[in-house]
Amino acid sequence: MKLDNIPKPLLVVGVIVVGLALFPLIQKPHTVCDSQLNVFKEAQKGVLYSYKVKNVTRPAVYPKALEACKYGNSSGACYEYFQLVRKFLRDVQNLPSDCSTEMDEVKEIKKVFVDSLRLFGVLAWGDKPPEPETRAGWFDLSDQALFCAVKDQWMRFYGQESWDQFRLSIHQELPGEEARFETNEAGERKCVNCESLKKAPQVFASPEEIFVRTIYSIPCNRLDAR
Predict the structure, then answer these.
(1) Is 88 buried (19+), middle (13-18) or exposed (0-12) by CB count in 10 A?
(2) What is the pLDDT of residues 37-69, one digit of tens each?
(3) Which of 11, 152, 194, 221 has the smallest number of Cβ neighbours within 10 A?
(4) Model-level pTM?
(5) Do the beta carbons of residue 167 and residue 211 sit within 8 Å?
């Protein structure tokens, strides 16, 4: 039978019926990982996700807390951010380790991992290369334990190779020498070497020499993030 001979109303109904029949077959099946991710997103409302209260949108607090920590660069400035990261860890720990593929579709999760681990690395390093003995910077044992807890979860979901690639990428952001400032006749303090400031890989002969000076090399086996 030619389609031209079928009444249009009947043809439209037929297309709809076929579409409804095929929809469950082509739709991605709902998995345990999907359910757990939905629980995670619900728990992170107000932290990573904005939400509405009586038609008023409340913004996520995470971005502001991250910026305050990054630029305040002190225990007090980072207090709220670290509390949010602790909550993130409690919620993400409920996700099965074999959900990493589904997690990749939730950009907010990887962002917290990258943000927090980069922040620990950069702030602990400071304005110039530290000695291995001072590689944790101003971070106390509680802060170091939090770093280790974030790292452990990264390893659980993404593995050793991914971790090694990440920490090596941060080496490119670390200053290899301290900025020098001079005061001119007008009393203005200006950096005299900022435009040519070397990064750590330009100063140290090997990645290992950089690694032992970073917080990434601290032993985590005796630290507790609670």
Answers:
(1) buried
(2) 999 999 999 999 998 888 888 999 999 999 999
(3) 221
(4) 0.81
(5) yes
Q: Cα–chain-centroid distance for residue 14? A: 49
Three-class secondary structure of residue 113 per DSSP: helix
Per the listing, tokens 């530290």 go with 130
49, two tokens: 């996700």
Strand, helix or coil for residue 26: helix
Which residues, listed in sequence order, are joined to residue 38 by a DSSP beta bridge?
none
Instruction: Give alpha helix (H) positions in the chain.
Output: 8-26, 32-43, 62-72, 75-92, 100-103, 107-125, 141-171, 200-203, 207-211
Which amino acid makes up residue 104? D
Angle at 104 between CA 100 and CA 105, to 5 degrees: 125
Tokens matching residue 103:
């997690």
- Taking the C-alpha atoms of residue 94 and residue 109, their distance in angstroms, rounded to an integer, is 13
Hey, what are 186's tokens? 């007008």
Nearest to 138 by CA among 176, 89, 147, 83: 147
Partners of residue 58 on adjacent β-strands? 51
Residue indicated by tokens 């389609």: 3
Under 8 Å CB-to-CB from 93, ≥6 apart: which residues? 153
What lies within 8 Å, CB to CB, of 183 at 6+ separation is 189, 190
In degrees, rounded to 5, the angle at the alpha carbon of residue 21 between the alpha carbons of residues 18 and 25 is: 125
| 157-200 pLDDT per residue, tens | 999 999 999 999 999 999 999 988 888 888 888 888 888 889 99
Structure tokens at 163: 């971790």
Tokens for 156? Answer: 């659980």
